[in-house]
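Q: Could you write out the predicted structure for this multi-component system? I'm mainly interested in how the pieces pack against one another.
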Amino acid sequence: MKTLAPIVAVIAVLAAVPFVVQSNATLNFLVVSLMVALAGQGWNILGGYGGQYSFGHAAFFGTGAYVTCILQVRYGVNAWVGFGAGIAAGAALGGVIGALAFRSGLRGSYFALVTLAFAEVLRIIASVAPITGAGVGTLIKLDLGAQTFQFQSRAVFYWVILGLVGVSLVIARLIERSRFGVWLIAVRENEDAAEALGVNARSVKSVAMIISGAVTAAAGCFYAQYFLFVDSGIAYGTWISIEALLTPIIGGVGTVFGPLLGALVVKSLGEGAKLVTGDVPGLDLILYGAVLVLVIWVAPGGLIGGLAQLRKRLMRGATRAAASTQGAGHG
Amino acid sequence: MPVLSPAILVSAVLNGLLTGAVYALVALGLTLIYGVLHIINFAHGALLSAALFAAFFAFRLLGIDPYVAIFLLTPLFFAFGYALQRFIIGPASHRDDRNMLLVTLGIAVIIENALLYAFRADTRTIDVPYAFETINFGFTFLAVPRVVGFAAVFVVALALWLIMNCTDIGRAIRAVAKERLGAELAGIDVAHVYAMTFGLGTACVAVAACLLIPNYYVNPSVGNAFVLVAFTIVVLGGMGSVLGALIGALLIGVVESLSGLFLGESLGQIGIFVIFIAVLLVRPNGLFGARA
Amino acid sequence: MSDQKFPFSRRQFLTTTAVGAAAAATGSVVMPSVLRAQGAPVKLGVLHPVTGALSYSGQQGRLGATLAIEEINAAGGIKGLGKIEAVLGDAQSTPEGGTAEVEKMNSAGVACIVGGYASNICLATTQAAARYELPYVVDVGVADGIVTRGLKNTFRFGPGFGVIAKTALANLAAINDQAGKPAKTVMIVHEDSLFGSGLAKLLNAQLPQQGFQILETIPHPTPTRDFNNVVLKIKAQNPDIVIPANYYNEYVLLARTMRQQQIKLKGIYSVLGGAASSYKFVKEFPEAAKFIMDCNHWFDPRSDKAQALKKNVEGKGQFFTYEVYMNYSCVYLIADALQRAASADRAKLTAALASSTFSGHVMPYGPTKFVNGQNEGAAPVNTQVLDNDIKVILPPSFANAKPVFPMPA
């Protein structure tokens, strides 16, 4: 349990936020940021720990969103059951795409683009298929109440998404500490060497993809409950694929807190840019892009990596100072 | 159901080839950058938008016909691309592929919104006298600018092939693409080669823009419509393969056209990605990609 | 890299929560930008997608709204309440972006929000505003779902799909009848998202009832890079009329491609056509635009206020597009309601809007009458491009030209 203590602590602190912050604008901002963090954590499991960069995580996000929408709207299924079904669908899709892609030995950029292609195929189908409402999209009826997973208070949504993010952090942590995680990271570092050492790379990657799909699908289900409207561009658009990979890379790939940190930073950056530049269209996004480039320039390992570097440098400086005061010959 | 006579099928195939030619022009630059720098250049679409604006203003303000503007804009955008890679993308990404991805993403956002900020969102078009000239091909009329584009793509592809195989810089680029460390040890200035590659890729985009503008329109996000297809073609053809990009583009153009004909324009878009997935599952390195 | 594998230090824990707290703090002082206006007690949220895919329409919408606010303030503001302070928001062409702006505007204490533009954005923003019983006037968004959810705060000034499709068809039948029924077959080309698909569905249901035969309905994505295949199908089936329903860029490409392929039709009758009733299109492609008919949002050509606004907008170098005058009218509607409510209180304003009978707008709607949030009098109008200008051809009460149908060869 000791390894989970930091996660519990972080979640506990964040859970206290709605008691301190009354502004709904802020709560909304945090809810959306946490949702993106959740999607990013899904990506992180496959891409950060597994080294398989996906450009099509929208496929999972959208599937989660649509499954829960369609079940509720067309089949009258309870919203919570729909949520679970959406997650299951995401996992299943992860299994399918993984089976196809990894069996063919797709790697690197080829894998990335195949995932993108899958997301696009789903988007196109969703934009014409009658069951999704085609172009018109699917609208979940506004019906506030706990049983329909629609809450009057934004704080409740906040706690729900925070809980989901917490679970995803625990999953990442457990993967890190498990044998599966060791295999996964080995595959990331050098797939051929790992295979030579007896790791079944294909099944390890597939399992990672299933978990990854489930986590990101959860974010999609949440989106559907929060905004109550889904269409093909929202569900399967490249925007979420980009957010899902941007946040872990900025925050720190292959770390437990990377996606969370990255999401908060990236979203705050967007807001901050707007504050600074005012109303002129486009200016805030120029600033956003510029800061993005600068962050990579300065902290190429992501923020967590950058902080680790900083810590190392400070510690090295301290050690050197300590050594020199002791009169040791070597620096 | 549509009347699917041979006349229509042939016309659709021809259309596909002409559209594919445009895709090829966009993809050629991308495949070069991909093959050498091993990065997916997210900024490619934004660069296309910028080049289209440049072609637009060359016509509107300076009265330069797009086909003439090619000779002006190609070196200009080559220099722009060179500088972008040499002084921003290269240093910012610390030579890491993954970082280059994000840096180019950031640059794409900057370029697109700079265009929005500077020129607003209005869609602009130019009206050149030959825009509506067509060649009568029996059942269908082929627009002259598109036919010119089709011919041009072979010229550009040939030029690229000549550069890659018959010049020193081409050899250096191929060396770096194959084995960067070795090339560096052999004394090749890798940063310079990277920048030259990016410059060449951007120059291709400028050519594409000039050939595209007579029959298309210009606004800050116009390039985005081509990005996904271009990426797909590059990977389909095999990264770094000029021939692969050319053939892949024409193939994708025809596939898109025929599936649009049979499935409708909306669902038909699926053809591109289904073919792409199918090819990759069978040939994981693309049609002409080097076996890993 | 090695000690990063299982990293967790106090520093990282602190950082994560620190950033979270900082974000919360930033959020709590996040304030939308405001136009400077001394002592302005009435805040009005002006929300449009001014960046992203819809930026042109969003910017035009914002222009119309801010022009109205300036005019009202120049005339002394709202009687009894003072001047209006515009709280501008950028929906970034997404529902999430719009929702975030609604939250900020609510925090800023706006009395009402106007705008949204796109149907999918409006669906989210009206709902977000409903949480605070914040009145929301939809400027354009035509999806029927916007006013059928039972939200008391939502008002739509313009017409929805249902009315637009019905009017378009009735007018088409009328024009066809008047010309001796030369047209029988129709092909529909529509963009495949909410507005195009919804419209196409209604057209498919109602066109046969008016005696027309639909040869094919062709959806296409936005953006579409090339229309040659679509035009090929049109050529092959040779319909009498083509009905396009799409956005500006695609409309232009379609029209140009039809001209290249020398398509001869009896008429091009668009419904909510992106360019068919656009001065920009007429100016830039006079040949391709000739005789195109549209059933779309349009201002009242007999209104002096409308003509003055047109001159003003064109004087600024902008085109007089529907986003401009619809938002302009919405702001005046809100101002009238504020005056009648004699207060910026949301409940009173909502009641005032619901009972509104406002005719000081520039649309050919007559006095407003909201039933379940929909302005009953709202309807589209038929235009045709004649003599390099856009004329209103139906209804006769607003018309300033007679329809030319079929299209001369």
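A: Regarding packing and overall arrangement: Chain C has a mean pLDDT of 87.
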